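[job 0412] stage=fold_complex status=start
inputs:
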Amino acid sequence: MRVVIAEDSVLLREGLTRLLTDRGHEVVAGVGDGDALIKTITDLDGRGMLPDVVVADVRMPPTHTDEGVRAAVQLRKTHPGVGVLVLSQYVEERYATELLAGSSRGVGYLLKDRVAEVREFVDAVVRVAEGGTALDPEVVAQLLGRSRKQDVLAGLTPREREVLGLMAEGRTNSAIAKQLVVSDGAVEKHVSNIFLKLGLSPSEGDHRRVLAVLTYLNS
Amino acid sequence: MATEYGEGYGFHAQPGHPGSAGERRHRLPAALRAPVEGRTWRELGYVLLSLPISILLFTYAVTMVSLGAGLLVTFLGVPVLAAALAGCRGLGAMERARARGLLRLDVGEPEPLRAGRNGLMGWVGAVLKSGASWRSLLYAVLQLPWAVVTFSVTVTFWSLGWSLLTYPLWFWVYPVYGGQDGLQLYGDETHQVYLDNPFEITVTAGVGLLFTLATPWIVRALTMVDRLMVHGLLGPSRLATRVVELESDRGVVVDTAAADLRRIERDLHDGAQARLVALAMDLGLAKEKLREDPQVAAQMVDEAHGEVKTALQELRDLARGIHPAVLTDRGLDAALSSVASRCTVPVQVEVDLAQRPAPAIEGIAYFTASELLQNISKHSRATWAAVEVWRSENRLMLQVVDNGVGGADTSQGSGLAGLAERLDAVDGILVVDSPAGGPTRVTAELPWRAEQAR
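[job 0412] stage=fold_complex status=done
writing structure:
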């Protein structure tokens, strides 16, 4: 997997590079701000060497606000094939909504703290690189908590809510089964129950499923 | 009550007096120049205009107010009265403009109406309750008698002066057309005195000159009263001026507080938080490595240990930057000594206070001193510095001196400008004396507020 890292703190940039290299991935470039990220990707594209995934910090110079998110949104428009994983010190459901606008293909939004769980973090990067979704459990919790469909959500069993949360994070059925230590069949049953209760048509593919859930929660 | 600090430093220019700095040098002495000066003509114009305008004002005010008062028994009275007052305010604005144009007297707008409710009744209430409205009314009424006085005095003096001064030029009119020898100075049935010989004519012209020379000063003295009236009755009240000042101060306080919070958040985000994330990452990696490669894992744990120590250091510095514990516990002397010890140049600290000031004042004094010392460390190239704190009556004085290169910049946007703004927000001031080449002497003056019993 080929990765570009955009992070203004040298300490963290080096840490991420070490972490990903250690797992056998290639970090092709490390930049410190949003404009440099866009420029690097355009350059790489010109040479036909687009990376699989970009890992970007939300807050970068010059304004230290949401450069990362804006660059990510732009990249998703210009280079839909490149996965974008946005890291942030704080989780803002609004940023997630902006990132997920339109499609949940190859997009991720994680709290920076998640890098501590090296294996899970790298899994998330890989998932995004492969076109999947990785949403931070906190974002999902915010979405679930903020959703105006509370009465419908209240109709779900605790287990179903758990499965819904993991689904929204972008996990596959088998990943959910592993996490909850149940059989794949049991998860499938929960998922179809959830779709039934929420009145959503069961969709094919993981990312469309995530999108359906998020759209539902946001509407 | 308004506290006025720093007048001695020339910080507050008196309003309403034209600056003398811009005045040109003249060859003629002021006394001889005065009758033909632009200023005199403007003041004359003001006085001449005053009479018709004051008649208008007076008529308007008296008519409208009596109408309103007469109608008070009906529901129309109060709105008519309010309209009368609002009209007076409008005329007041006109008068301020006239004073600005002709007397060069710059008087600010009075405090705006503060309507408690929307709609007509809210407006009526606001107009009636506003002191500025009633003061405009008073002005409209008082202006007339005074304008009559100034007008008659001025016109008499001015016309008498110029006509007597020019008497040698037109005295021939009397024998030719008037049937007498000259201007009659005195006359009864038996005895008449005419100004007709050259000596008398010269004396007459001399008297005229005296009158002409005196007129500008008389007019100036008379318009002084007009200035006072416009300033006192049509301008903002002292209280309103103070309120405006306090509102702006409060804005600065809120802005500074917000800026401080942003700075703290940034420091946390870029410093300790980033370090801890890196640390978590290192430890996460070490945990994974523990089984397969214990040696590498040990090295990683070692690095992480170093990271933790740095993070702790950063957190400690940050906490001290927010509020040093020693300041709360031991006061300015101890806190400033601690700052001084971290300065790159030797600093002599002398705090001469019998009593501790209020915590807010103490905090501002502390931050002022520590920021100034930081500046010294960074920019001054000094080899020696001193901090002195003492109390002078109702002020807390702080002085930081260094023997560095000087040239400290107080222009907009510099650190010192920010410091000055902060001090201003608590009615303090900052005086910077920093010639190029040094030495630099920065004096901060804060209002003294004693510590409340804790």
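[job 0412] summary: Confidence is low (pLDDT under 50) at residues 1-23 of chain B.
[job 0412] exit 0
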